[in-house]
């Protein structure tokens, strides 16, 4: 019995590295058990069935993981878009509120400057504002 162990360079993502390691382990098991397979033919058949079932289950798990990953990415992208919309809305709202407060502040200063302790200045500013709105 001759056992060969090859170390192939790791490449690609974690999934391809796992596949490479699995293939290497299977090659090693095949080389180690080749004498056993030859003496008992049913073992090779059962091993092939087990491997086929394992490969099928692995493929199903990977498909499910891929679907889950796509759903999570889509949800994250939706959340990022919603946050960007919220930030835009808050920026517009903040700008509008700042403009409104500036106008109110100017009118309050005018009213305070004209009133000199009374309420006449505020009434003058109110009348002026209503006249401009008409």
**Helical element count?**
3
Weakly predicted, low-confidence segments = 1-11
Helix content: over 70%
Strand proportion, as a percent range, falls in under 5%
List the secondary-structure elements in sequence, H or E.
HHH
Number of domains: 1
Q: Any idea what the radius of gyration is?
A: 38 Å
Strand tally, please?
Answer: 0
- Mean pLDDT across residues: 78
Q: Largest sheet, described in full?
A: none
Structural class: mainly alpha
Q: What is the distance, rounded to the nearest whole angstrom, between the alpha carbons of the first and last residues?
A: 103 Å
The shape, in one word, is rod-shaped
Task: Offer a concise description of the structure.
This protein has 134 residues and is mainly α. It has helices at residues 14-39, 41-115, 120-133. The radius of gyration is 38 Å and the shape is rod-shaped.
Describe the structure.
The protein is mostly helical. The protein has one domain. Helices cover 86% and strands 0% of the residues. The longest helix is centred in the middle third of the chain and has 75 residues, at 41-115. It is rod-shaped. Mean pLDDT is 78; it is low at 1-11.
